[in-house]
User: Which sequence fits this backbone?
């Protein structure tokens, strides 16, 4: 099975940088996804890390350390539209993806 | 526009009734999934299908059934709805590798009364 731990809520200021941490315990680890979910909407794919290190994609970056069971999502130059929940989702094998409850990020002016 | 279509968008259903939630994708993805999302519990996998003709059970399969007669369609059936099945249901799909993430439908909000 998989245990996923991420903060329930975070608040950050528009224009700032925020880091959302995720720790997980899994067997047969095969990568980790980050998804964004706005209230009342479907999750949308942000990133997928398989190897250790930082993956950068525009304002969003995701980091993975497999040995530590740790990942983070870094959001730069925060915008109001970034207010959403961010879901950490480790993958076990090919089809077993477990979603965390998510971190609700509120961006304030 | 390529993606996943779910129907209905929302539904109020009497307990004990049978209901099928529809899901269709036009991306030719091999794998499809059904999740339910409840406050405080996150997304939980109900059933999945790796390819047409095959299905598998997820974390919370009881009370639900699925079929995968072709690549595009993956309906979810509640044989006899109960109030605990009140939830938001998301259908998703991915290619065989899954490395590009899942594409989710817009969801079906189901209330069982």
Assistant:
């Amino acid at each position: 099975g998989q245990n996923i731990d991420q903060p329930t809520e975070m608040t950050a200021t528009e224009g700032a940088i925020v880091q959302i941490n995720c720790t997980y315990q899994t067997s047969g680890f095969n990568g980790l996804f980050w998804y964004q979910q706005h209230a009342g909407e479907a999750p949308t794919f942000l990133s997928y890390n398989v190897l250790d290190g930082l993956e950068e994609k525009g304002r969003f970056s995701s980091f993975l350390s497999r040995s530590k069971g740790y990942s983070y999502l870094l959001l730069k130059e925060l915008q109001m539209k970034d207010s959403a929940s961010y879901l950490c989702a480790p993958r076990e094998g090919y089809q077993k993806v477990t979603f965390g409850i998510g971190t609700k990020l509120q961006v304030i002016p | 526009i390529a993606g996943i279509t779910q129907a209905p968008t929302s539904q109020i259903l009497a307990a004990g009734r049978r209901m099928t939630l529809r899901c269709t994708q036009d991306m030719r993805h091999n794998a499809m999934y059904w999740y339910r999302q409840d406050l405080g519990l996150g997304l939980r996998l109900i059933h999945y299908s790796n390819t047409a003709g095959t299905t598998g059970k997820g974390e919370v399969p009881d009370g639900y059934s699925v079929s995968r007669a072709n690549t595009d369609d993956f309906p979810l059936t509640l044989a006899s709805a109960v109030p605990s099945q009140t939830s938001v249901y998301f259908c998703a799909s991915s290619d065989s590798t899954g490395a590009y993430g899942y594409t989710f439908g817009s969801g079906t909000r189901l209330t069982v009364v």
The interface with chain A takes residues 31, 33, 35, 40-45, 48, 50, 56, 59, 90, 97-107 of chain B (CB under 8 Å). The two ends of chain B are 35 Å apart (CA to CA).
